[in-house]
């Protein structure tokens, strides 16, 4: 029996996940405390009881910002990493309007074949609010090669993509001599598990050691790539970062109401376009995630089959923490929609990779967690259910 | 075994308490000097100015008890940030003030032209000598600093790790049962927490 947190729907999966085939294990399989609560709930309850002094955090953030001034050789105070989606909207506006910083936005844009029109519109929408933005798009041929390789090798389409999304802004920061770089949230605190009840700090300094990007492009085991092919996937060395006195900061740590739902609400008010797809097709309740391309939906499906939880689990847990959903409603939503992925997205990915559906299914069969799923009537079905 | 976190009115102790709670070590915020003798491990935190810290410690009668704990009974003490500086002989912050002198050395102003002062943010350490404090901790870890005054021993003595920020600064010092860190382990992710655990286990 998979154990669930008594307050939200995070699972205790320590007995179910073998450490060989998945990369995200440690973040999701942490045990529950004596009261049956997960780490995220411990953190959220702590926060709700006003035990975290957010004024002190803001003071800390301002000190960090001030300390970067002398190393700045640019007219911009900071770089904000953006896609045009909800979190980047929140960050960009927070940095400019609340922290009063001159921001240079940096966006890694998907190759045209992958980028949705909605994604392009959203980035335009953000820039139209009065921002300078550097957009960088990497060689689409190698981009696709790496994704395909990652899919076959790790059952995760996005490892190389995430490496590039994280590394590109760091390259830009060093080149433009802007020593302050903001990322959104540290998922360790907000969706998976924290360290102490309040979390320890807002440092993104070690982002490159994160679960799916650890080891950098070398860890992809893709032998045919040149150094140039990997340049923007490869995080600059710590020596280079230290020399530039670069500070990488998770803004989410300093903002009390940093929630995907809240960020989306603000972003919608500022003109963001969301998805109208059916939750039963995209495994997503609200349609405000993965706006700029469709393969994340497939990747969430793969994650679900490996770990037993998908995007809907993340969303309902966050909704419970914000008191906008009861646990009973959450159970229903997870049963109905978690791990959903319509054939149209899978077929689109197969077409993009130029592989057959059968080849796709073989990879799925190879990575599915057989402790958690069983094959019945032509489908992988969960052996567990939330309760 | 309970950890005592000395409260002498210099800074917020909540994060430290949470860190020890997380590590599952019994801990108490110590308000009364008479209780110092109950602890095997003491934490001397501190945010603020050196002279005020010393005067507060005196006012609350902590000084003698801390000396008795650390020097006579040779029990463990860890100074954090300003707490580390207080373990030293003296500081020139605001006015010359004598410290506890558990480790000899002077705290000086971080007088840098090209660098921002205070030094705020995350830095990697350069390790000078081995210490069990860093047992099973990745050498590439970053630690959170926030200070305008610094200490650097000459000759290099009692120093475990340093950083370079315009000049060389002591990041970790130790002498027998006395330990000091210029950074905030309670604000340095899992590696900082691990360091606190290592200190307790010493």
Structural description of this entry:
The complex is a heterodimer of chains A (387) and B (202). Chain A contains 17 helices and nine strands. Chain A has 387 residues and is of the alpha/beta class. In chain A, helix 14 runs antiparallel to helix 15. Chain A starts with a strand and ends in a 5-residue tail after the last strand. By secondary structure, chain B is α/β, with parallel strands linked by helices. Chain B has a single domain, classed as Rossmann fold (3-Layer(aba) Sandwich). In chain B, the strands form three sheets. In chain B, strands 2-1-3-4-14-13-12-9 form an eight-stranded mixed β-sheet. The radius of gyration of chain B is 15 Å and the shape is globular. The model of chain B has no long low-confidence stretch (mean pLDDT 94).
Q: Short description, anyone?
A:
The complex is a heterodimer of chains A (387) and B (202). Chain A is of the alpha/beta class and 387 residues long.
Overall pLDDT of chain A: 90
Q: Helix coverage percent of residues of chain B? A: 10-25%
| Oligomeric description of these chains | heterodimer
Strand content bin of chain B:
25-35%
Radius of gyration of chain B: 15 Å
- Return the structural class of chain A: alpha/beta
Backbone shape of chain B: globular
Please tally the β strands of chain A and state the result.
9
Poorly predicted runs of 5 or more residues of chain A:
19-29
Q: Termini distance of chain B?
A: 12 Å
Widest sheet, order of strands of chain B: 2-1-3-4-14-13-12-9
As for the CATH topology of chain B, it is Rossmann fold
The 3D shape of chain A can be described as: globular
The most extensive contact between chains is: A-B, 24 and 29 residues
Reported CATH architecture of chain B: 3-Layer(aba) Sandwich
The CATH superfamily of chain B is known as: Class I glutamine amidotransferase (GATase) domain
Q: In DSSP terms, counting alpha (H) and pi (I) runs of 4 or more, how many helices of chain B?
A: 5
Instruction: Kindly provide the name of the CATH class of chain B.
Output: Alpha Beta
Number of domains of chain B: 1
């Amino acid at each position: 029996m998979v154990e669930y947190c008594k307050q939200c729907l995070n699972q205790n999966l320590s007995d179910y996940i073998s450490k060989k085939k998945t990369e995200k294990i440690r973040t999701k399989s942490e045990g529950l405390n004596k009261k049956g609560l997960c780490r995220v709930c411990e953190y959220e309850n702590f926060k709700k009881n006003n035990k975290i002094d957010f004024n002190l955090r803001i003071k800390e953030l301002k000190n960090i910002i001030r300390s970067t001034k002398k190393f700045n050789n640019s007219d911009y105070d900071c770089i904000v990493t953006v896609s045009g989606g909800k979190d980047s909207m929140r960050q960009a506006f927070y940095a400019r309007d609340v922290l009063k910083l001159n921001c240079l936005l940096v966006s890694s844009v998907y190759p045209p074949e992958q980028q949705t029109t909605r994604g392009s519109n959203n980035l335009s929408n953000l820039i139209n609010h009065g921002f300078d933005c550097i957009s960088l798009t990497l060689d689409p041929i190698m981009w696709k090669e790496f994704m395909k390789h990652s899919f076959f090798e790790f059952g995760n389409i996005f490892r190389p993509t995430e490496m590039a999304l994280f590394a590109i802004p760091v390259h830009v920061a060093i080149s433009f001599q802007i020593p302050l770089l903001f990322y959104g949230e540290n998922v360790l605190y907000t969706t998976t598990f924290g360290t102490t009840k309040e979390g320890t700090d807002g440092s993104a300094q070690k982002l490159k050691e994160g679960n799916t990007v650890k080891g950098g492009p070398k860890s992809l085991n893709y032998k045919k790539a040149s150094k140039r092919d990997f340049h923007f996937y490869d995080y600059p060395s710590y020596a280079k970062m230290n020399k530039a006195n670069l500070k990488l900061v998770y803004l989410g740590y300093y903002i009390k109401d940093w929630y995907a739902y809240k960020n989306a609400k603000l972003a919608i008010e500022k003109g963001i376009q969301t998805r109208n797809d059916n939750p039963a097709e995209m495994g997503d309740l609200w349609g405000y995630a993965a706006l700029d391309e469709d393969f994340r939906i497939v990747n969430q499906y793969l994650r679900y089959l490996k770990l037993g939880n998908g995007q809907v689990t993340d969303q309902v847990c966050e909704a419970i923490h914000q008191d906008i959903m009861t646990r009973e409603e959450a159970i229903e939503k997870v049963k109905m929609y978690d791990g959903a992925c319509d054939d149209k997205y899978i077929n689109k990915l197969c077409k993009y990779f130029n592989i057959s559906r059968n080849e796709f299914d073989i990879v799925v069969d190879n990575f599915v967690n057989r402790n958690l799923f069983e094959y019945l009537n032509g489908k992988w079905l969960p052996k567990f259910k939330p309760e | 075994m309970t950890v005592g976190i000395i409260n002498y009115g210099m800074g917020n102790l909540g994060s430290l308490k949470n860190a020890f709670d997380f590590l599952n070590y019994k801990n108490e915020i110590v308000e009364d000097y008479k209780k110092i003798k109950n602890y095997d491990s003491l934490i001397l935190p501190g945010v603020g100015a050196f002279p005020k810290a010393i005067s507060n410690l005196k006012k609350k009668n902590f000084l003698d008890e801390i000396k008795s704990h650390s020097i006579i009974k040779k029990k463990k003490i860890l100074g954090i940030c300003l707490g580390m500086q207080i373990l030293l002989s003296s500081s020139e912050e605001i006015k010359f003030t004598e410290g506890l002198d558990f480790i000899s050395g002077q705290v000086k102003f971080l007088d840098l032209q090209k660098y921002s002062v205070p030094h705020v943010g995350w830095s990697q350490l350069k390790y000078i000598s081995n210490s069990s404090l860093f047992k099973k901790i990745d050498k590439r870890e970053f630690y959170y600093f926030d200070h305008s005054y610094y200490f650097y021993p000459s000759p290099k003595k009692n120093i475990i790790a340093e950083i370079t920020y315009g000049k060389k600064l002591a990041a970790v010092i130790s002498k027998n049962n006395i330990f000091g860190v210029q950074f905030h382990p309670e604000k340095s992710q899992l590696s900082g927490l691990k360091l606190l655990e290592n200190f307790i286990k010493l």
